[in-house]
Write a structure and sequence with these properties.
The structure is a single chain. It contains 12 helices and 4 strands; from the N terminus they run ααβββααααβαααααα. A two-stranded antiparallel sheet has the order 1-2. A two-stranded parallel ribbon has the order 3-4. The protein has a domain of 218 residues. With 329 residues, it is mainly alpha-helical. 21% of the residues are buried.
């Protein structure tokens, strides 16, 4: 499984967070710094994969419809699980299998709503699942800002809708390569669900925090991707310049050696009329090599400048990421 590496890193993070059945949002640290140290002394990194909120919501509904439950999740927050009053159930019985989409959307306690923000934020900042601690508007703002901050400080995150870019960014960040390229599947269980515009808008409304987080994540993700591409191009350019410099030196060395051999074969030749008959030839050779090198560098500079505006507009999130990657390495 190509995502096995994520499962391994996630298992390591559970050593820090606690029980593998606890809610990630409930026990997530106030700031998921790029590198943390577990009790075993090993370093690990927080990473995640985000998905378009509407597709993710429909996918979870289909999952629940087939009989999936979250009963094993303890939702422990600040050392305790929520009470039944704080987190009521959306259904009675063993599961919620066969539930219609409308019933799924109608439950006000459905944890599918804004799940990505809740899983990424520090719930202790808002009193965990106790909704009476602060007004709803303030609670939503705190959760969203916490999720954004934690995402920004992660060593890596990807987007389901950008599989190839996710692979590229992961490989460049951690300096490792997957065996095969990721595949972008456009047909999923969620995409097979036909919904009208009204239901689309309602799902977006139920997941308005996730919608804002995903917009932020997409922008940050593409900035990180662009930064890595520019860094790769700069490194390739540096290597080409070094190679040209090396070849230039070898060419000059070969040229001067051939000159010396020619002069040694004609030691009695009269040089009074031109003490250095090859001076002009050497000078022209140097000028041609220098001019050719400059022309190539100018062409590369034009290519680099085409993306300069995007680079100049890089947000603080990307700057934090750059520093985080350098520290990790």
């Amino acid at each position: 499984n190509r995502w096995r590496i994520f499962q391994i890193l996630d298992a390591a993070s559970k050593d820090k967070r606690g029980s593998p059945n606890t809610n990630a949002g409930a026990n997530s640290p106030s700031s998921t710094k790029t590198r943390n140290t577990s009790k075993s002394g090993k370093n690990f990194h927080y990473i995640t994969i985000l998905r378009d909120p509407v597709s993710r919501y429909l996918s979870e509904w289909r999952h629940v419809q087939r009989g999936a439950t979250w009963k094993a999740s303890l939702h422990v927050c600040d050392g305790r699980p929520p009470t039944s009053e704080e987190l009521p159930s959306c259904y009675t019985g063993d599961d919620w299998s066969g539930c219609p989409l409308k019933e799924f959307m109608d439950c006000p306690y459905n944890l599918a709503n804004n799940r990505q923000v809740r899983m990424l934020s520090d719930l202790t900042l808002v009193g965990c699942y106790n909704l009476s601690v602060m007004p709803e508007k303030q609670r939503n703002k705190v959760l969203l800002e916490s999720a954004k901050s934690n995402l920004k400080h992660m060593a890596f995150f990807g987007l389901t809708e950008f599989q190839r870019k996710t692979q590229y960014l992961f490989e460049k960040t951690f300096n490792m390569n997957f065996i095969s390229p990721f595949t972008q599947y456009n047909t999923t269980r969620a995409s097979s669900v036909e919904i009208n515009e009204e239901i689309q808008k309602r799902i977006e409304g139920l997941n308005f925090l996730d919608m804002e987080l995903y917009s932020y994540a997409k922008d940050l993700f593409l900035q990180r991707y662009q930064f890595m591409r520019q860094k790769e191009h700069q490194e390739a350019r540096r290597k080409r310049q070094e190679q040209r410099k090396f070849l230039k030196g070898r060419l000059l060395q070969t040229h001067f050696q051939s000159q010396g051999q020619g002069q040694s074969q004609n030691p009695n030749q009269n040089q009074s009329q031109n003490p250095n008959p090859n001076a002009n030839q050497n000078q022209n050779l140097m000028q041609n090599l220098t001019q050719s090198s400059r022309q190539k560098e100018n062409r590369e500079s034009l290519k680099q400048n085409s993306g300069k505006e995007q680079k100049d507009n890089t947000s603080n999130g990307t700057n934090d990421y750059i520093g985080s990657v350098e520290k990790w390495r």
